[in-house]
Amino acid sequence: MNAKATAGADNLDDARPQRVRKPLYTAPTPAGAACLYADDPAPVVEARYRRIWETSMREMPFVNGALSVAAIGFRRYRGDWVGAVITPWFLNLFLLPGGGTLWSDLASGDRVRIPFPVGELEFIADFDPGGDIPAYQYCPLFAPVSQFATQAAALAAAEEALSALFAVLEPVVVEGAAEAAAPAAEAPIPPRRAFLRKVVGHRS
User: Fold this and answer.
1) How far apart are the first and last CA of the chain?
2) 55-73 pLDDT, tens per residue?
3) How far apart are CA 100 and CA 186, in angstroms?
């Protein structure tokens, strides 16, 4: 092909429309502030997951039939609501908006690091403007939940996780100057914090 023909081919390529790669799905971004919960949101959360359990999850192979749905321990922390949710397919920490300083409006799948007394933990946002709970954020603890033989065992794990979440680390008292000079990293990890590290991972 001569130079003139080659130039013509190049011009033809330039004239072709360029394909723009787009993601198959883009999560919706909240258009405004999330609906705030003035009262304990546990009943609403529990009702939602009971409905999901009854209508669409019972036949799934990964569910644990020994467990039932429970939303426990919800309390206000820095103005927002934090608690734990147990279902036959997961055990997670939940954050819902209460008008406080922890909450931020995010698109589904976005991740955010949230400070607690035990340290920062990563939560994942879920946003569905048409849902009965339009927006919440969760921190996965167990999924699936096959290790729990009874509901009581799952409840104990959820309560321990919440206790660890709000545990304030106490200074380690040592005797002697040599011991006092030991690096802080060598101090024993309190049992509740060790538990939370085990189930969700501690990220510095």
Assistant:
1) 62
2) 999 999 999 999 999 999 9
3) 36
Tokens representing 171 are 């200074």
Q: For 149, phi and psi rounded to 5 degrees?
A: -80, -25
Would you say the C-alpha torsion 144, 150, 156, 162 has a positive or negative sign? positive
Query: Mean pLDDT for the chain?
Result: 80
Which residue's structure tokens are 């101090």?
A: 187
Q: What CA–CA distance (Å, rounded) separates 131 from 168? A: 36
Alpha helices in the chain (DSSP H): 3-15, 42-52, 151-165, 177-180, 191-200
How many angstroms separate the CA atoms of 127 and 106, rounded? 7
Residue 183: is its pLDDT beyond 70?
no
Summarised one tens digit per residue, pLDDT across range 191-201 is 555 566 655 55
Closest alpha carbon to 35 in 80, 1, 85 = 80
CA 127/CA 109 separation, integer angstroms = 8
Residue type, 25: Y
Angstrom CA distances, 193 to 73, 108, 141, 165, 166, stand at 18, 29, 14, 8, 10
CATH of domain 42-200: 3.30.1460.40
Q: Where are the domains of the chain?
A: 42-200
